[in-house]
Amino acid sequence: MVHYKELGLVNSKELFKKAMEGGYAIPAYNFNNLEQLQAIITACSETRSPRILQVSKGARSYANQTMLVHMARGAVEMAKEISDPAIPIVVHLDHGDSYELCVSCIESGFSSVMIDGSHLPYEENIALTRKVADYAHQYDVSVEGELGVLAGIEEHVQHEESLYTKPEEVEDFVGRTDVDSLAISIGTSHGAYKFPPDAEIPPLRFDILEEIEKRLPGFPIVLHGASSVVPEYVEMINQYGGKLEGARGVNEDQLRQAARSAVCKVNIDSDGRLAMTGLIRKALSENPANFDPRKYLGPARDGLIELMKHKNQNVLGSAGNG
Ligand SMILES: [Zn+2]
Question: How far is the CA of 222 from the centre of ligand 1 (A)?
Fold first, then answer.
């Protein structure tokens, strides 16, 4: 077992406390490869934002789980070199789907895990989440649970419709599972097609969020599926041979409003995917004779840095808090 403190990581407890007091949310950016990881560390160091490096089950199998932990270790060292004093880093499992996966991540040095039992019947969600929390807390690892179901596609899991979180369940759930934060469903969704192409984008259900805040005062809330599906990158993908029709996301003003509330962690993955894809397509198209991967991955990484700096500064308000 490698404990996360040996890797120079922190759990999310202290970060969430400060985010709650400061009226901002911490970005949770997913990474699967070197360029995404470099972008997160650089963007968050330059804006002095705390950050959560998020790893999914798919990322673990894509990059190799041993490699990923060493990448995270490298990220901590890189962060120390480029920002003084160092800004805290959390390594978090996104959408853990079993007790065994959470244990494996904790044993390899993760400082935070999500156990997603949101698709299970209520009592089964509680039992699974409690089991993970009991194990994780022995090692001071933070645990995120989820109530309510988000629409959209999250790697291999797809849901047609969102089921909003029921505020009347949250106190019972948090009390019985002992989770440290709770992901809720108030209208965000996974993927790049969050809303039907012709309909008006519906506002987030702030009424549900407020009711949850009343029932769980000071408790950290998490929003998944919070990409804005930045139109500039969707257009770039389409301009350079891609085909993304009707891709739309959550309005950034709505996310800014949510970040001022009990929402302490906001997951942004699709926007980074779109930016990288658009910029890689552009670079390949503009330089057809190039065959050096650095010449198209480099601009993609630079664009990702700009996107993340914008999110930290203008959407989440996390800049300057690291
Ligand atoms: Zn998610």
Answer: 10
Assessment of whether the complete model's pTM goes beyond 0.85: yes
In this structure, is residue 321 part of a structural domain?
no
Q: 130 versus 199: which is more confidently predicted?
A: 130
11 — phi, psi (to 5°)?
Answer: -85, 180
How do 51-56 and 89-96 pair as beta strands?
A: parallel
- How many whole angstroms from 225 Cα to the centroid of ligand 1? 6
| 322, part of any domain | no
Q: What is the pLDDT of residue 277?
A: 98
Question: Could you tell me if residue 9 is inside a domain?
Answer: yes
Strand order in the sheet with 151-154: 157-159, 151-154, 189-190
Note whether residue 269 is domain-resident. Answer: yes
Structural domain range at position 10: 4-316
**How much is the mean pLDDT over the chain?**
95
pLDDT at 158 (0 to 100)? 66
Give the catalytic positions in this structure.
94
Rounded distance from Cα 211 to ligand 1 centre (Å) = 22
Provide the number of structural domains found in the chain. Answer: 1
Q: What CATH number has the domain bearing residue 259?
A: 3.20.20.70
